[in-house]
Design goal:
Number of domains: 4
Structural class: alpha+beta
Radius of gyration: 48 Å
Distance between the termini: 86 Å
Largest sheet: 6 strands, antiparallel, barrel
Order of helices and strands: HEEEEEHHEEEEEEEEEEEEEE
Number of helices: 3
Length: 370
Amino acid sequence: MSPPFLPKKDLLKRIYINGVRMMIVKAIMKRKKILSAVLAMMAIFWYVKHHNNANQDEQNAVMVEATTVKESTVPMEAHALGTLTARSIEITPEAPGHVKKVIVQDGVQVKAGELLLQLDDEVLSSKFDSMQAEYNYTRGNYQRMLPLGKRGFVAKDTIEKVEAELKRKKAELQESEVMLNHTKLVAPFSGMVGKCKVSMGEYVNVGQSVLTLTDIQHLRVEYNIPERYLSALRLGQEVKITSAAYPGKVFTGKVSYISPTINAENRSLALYADVPNDKHELASGMLVDVVQSLGSTEHALLIPARSLVPMLDGMQVYKIVKGKAYAINVVVGKRTENDAQIIQGLAAGDMVITDGQMKVKNASAVKTKT
């Protein structure tokens, strides 16, 4: 079928429209070619620049040593300064009198119950002997009358009176014995005698201090630790004690007291631990370093202590990510001689610089030694 006949005006309009369409298509095709060329140029430019930067970073990379953050079990400890103390008492008489004899010498070791000082006991000794004789006589009289009473030869009330008299004489004898014993000053426990404060013949009163006795075999270390350790404190925990008097030597003890209250001024708790001193190496009054064991922390993150970089507001480490070192703020927990526990800022497996961190800046390219 032949196309319909179009007027000249419509024919020219169609020819014009088709021409414009062809021009638009050609323009679009041309623009696509230009856009493709631009994208290709940009890709080439980025590759060249990245390659050059990579080469430059590699050339300028700082040589450092690094290690990975590791998990480990860390013993928890509290450190403090302590003072050694000893149980010490003043020996005082319970009865007045003249000093008859000083038995022990100054500075000697005595055992519990050992006689230290003797007061004049002549009067009390004579009274005790008299009470002893009266008691023995009354007891003999009672023992003779008791079987007679059972047979009916002695009245019951007479037996009861003699028995009451016997009890009274026994009480008087015991009182006399106690008063006589008061003239003997004995050691209530084993320890070392201090300097005697009285001389033979001197009159002493009740409660007057005559000498000092110190238990040097069982010492006590008193110290304070911060309140943050409260939840980990237990009676019986081990403490290690060191002193400048014995470099390198460690003494041990057990916690025997934990204060029920916290000091409001310095927010600390008072403790003491019993320390055996069988060899008499330690002395009361010594200043010592105390390390108290508080258990252990599982899965603790550890890095070498030399990795830490001190800052005004805390600690930093340099973490290596894709060949670059980045400064990371960290929170440090327990520290040992060689390692430091990281509480916040790092994760297990992170790589941190151990040596050479002072030569790098944040985001600096680094290369680790193999």
